[in-house]
Structures are given as structure tokens and as C-alpha cells.
Amino acid sequence: MHSIDSQAANHYHSIWQAATRINWKIEDLIGGDKRLNFTQPFLPEALASVSAISCLTEAEKLKLNQIRGNSYLYFFGLCEEFILPYVIGHISQIQRSDLYATQAFLHFAEEESKHMLLFRQFAENFEQGFGSRCDCAGPARTICDRILAHHRLAVALTTLHIEWMTQRHYLESVRDTQGLDAQFCCLLRYHWIEEAQHAKLDALMVEDIAQSLSPQEIQTAISDYFAIVNLLDQVFHEQVQLDLESLSRAIDRQFSEAERAEIQTTQIQSYRWTFLWSGMTHRNVEGTFRAICPSSQTQLLEKAKAFG
Ligand SMILES: [Fe+2]
Ligand SMILES: [Fe+2]
User: Fold this and answer.
1) Residue 227's pLDDT is what?
2) Can you tell me whether residue 34 is helix, strand or coil?
3) I want to staple 199 with a disulfide (CB 3.0 to 4.6 A). Which of 60, 163, 184, 277 is the partner?
């Protein structure tokens, strides 16, 4: 990677300083008497989309909301699992003299590893308290390896998408929703706080990588980003089938074909909106695409239409 200028160094410095002022520990959020409360929903309706499913009772909708909460944890854990080695690889490319950039990305990597532990502990608490098995698409390692096999700029764009999506989920859907489980809300809030610095670093990382590439190679990387989006879409389709089985086990009920179709249609739309559309249409994601390749903003929005 080329050496960064003094303006970028200041930017890295201020992001790193902001990040070091935030100091929460996993035990502040989960463990001991801090446990999930299974009488309450975990996700806001905007992210789980259960209320309009006519074939489910209110109690069954609550179960599906919690199943979605569990898969939300799983997919974030999965994202951290490919972001962590990717960021460590990026650190090794930074010039030795660029110490603020090095510090900022080291802190980023440390936080992602903490988040992985955090999501894991919530998942364990979920498993102990939910009452029946919930499967998630995977194995996570295989999905991560498939993502990491794409162009490095495409992986950086995917990371940028995920981090801004996290900001959007919290600010637009979680923060003002009443009646959600307090521990789950804490998780989303504290994750959101640290991800705010990551999102800024991702934009710098994308711009840095793009500077060393030809326009043609940037276009190839953007096509690769869309390939990752398609891969994730396939994974979400698989997850909807697993969620249906988990729900059926949890409420001890077999669904008719029509009922399955209703739940599948609503939930596929919901996964796509939550994880794909809300990242692709974030104005800062759009802005970064425009900055590295002006024509790609239109491609991005066209692609997003299928998921909104
Ligand atoms: Fe994270
Ligand atoms: Fe992050």
C-alpha cells in the first residue's frame, strides 16, 4: 500500500482516539444475571417482519422473532469471522511509518474479535433458554472462505456495506422501538457504538485499495461485490428453510404448503431487506461506490431494487 498523506494520518488519528474512548466489556452485556428474556421480542419488526404473517398466532410470531434474533447474531458473527482475517491482512500492507493507520486498524481487529466472543455468548444463552434447536446456514467457515476468495476490493466493499448497515439498523429500527428484550438491545447498542468507527475506517480502506487499481480492475472488483451479494442471497434462502424447521419444532406444529409459502415469502423479503437492501442503499455506501467508480452507483441501486 502507498504511504498515506498527513490529512489521512490525522483522520486515522482522530478515528483511533474516538475508538479508544469507548470501553465496554463483554461481561457488561451478558453473563450472570444478564440473560435474554424469552417473553419479549429480540428484533424490531422492521428487521424481523413477523407481524403480517396471517397463519401465525401472536405467541408463534414471538417465537419466529426470536429465531430471527438468533440468526441475526449468527450472521453478524459470521461477518466478523471473515472481516477479522481480512483486516489483519490489510494491516500487514500498511507502511511501517503510518502508525496512526496501524493503530486504528489494530484496534478495529481487536474489537471485531471481541464482538465474535460477544455474539458467541449471546448464542449460547439463546441455546440454553429458547427450548428447542435452531439451525443456521453454513458452516460459517465455508461461507467466509467463499467470500474471501473474491477480489480484495470486493471484500472491503462488503465489509463497508455490513458496517454501515449496522449503523442503519440501530439508528432507524432499534433505538426507538419499545418492548424489546433489554439484553438484546444492549448488544445492538454497544455493537453499533464501536461499528461507527469501523465504518469510517472501511471507507478509508476501500479508497486506499482503489487508488492502487486500474479502472478496469475496480470494475472487476465491483462485479465481484455483486457476486458476494448473490452468494449471501442464496445463504438467506437456505436460512429461511432452516427457520421454518426451527419454528415448526419450537411450536410443535406442521405447516401446510400454503402456510409454508406465506412464511417463506415474507421472510425471504425480510432477510433481503435487512441484510442486503439496507446496506446497499446506505448513502455512505453509495458515496464510496461513486468515489471509486462514478458509474457503479447506478449499478448498485439497480441491484438493490431486487431486494427492497
Ligand atoms: Fe463487529
Ligand atoms: Fe465492525
Assistant:
1) 98
2) strand
3) 163
Count of Cβ atoms closer than 10 Å to residue 145 Cβ? 12
Distance from the CA of 190 to the center of ligand 1, in angstroms?
10
161 Cα: distance to centroid of ligand 1 (angstroms): 12
Q: How far apart are the CA of 156 and the centre of ligand 1, in A?
A: 14
Domain segments of the chain: what residues? 49-305
What DSSP state is assigned to residue 31? B
302 Cα to the center of ligand 1, angstroms: 28
pLDDT single digits (tens) 199-244? 999 999 999 999 999 999 999 999 999 999 999 999 999 999 999 9
**Please, what CATH class does the domain formed by 49-305 belong to?**
mainly alpha
Cα–Cα distance for residue pair 218/220, rounded to 1 Å: 5
Amino acid at 24: W
Ligand nearest to the CA of 105: 2
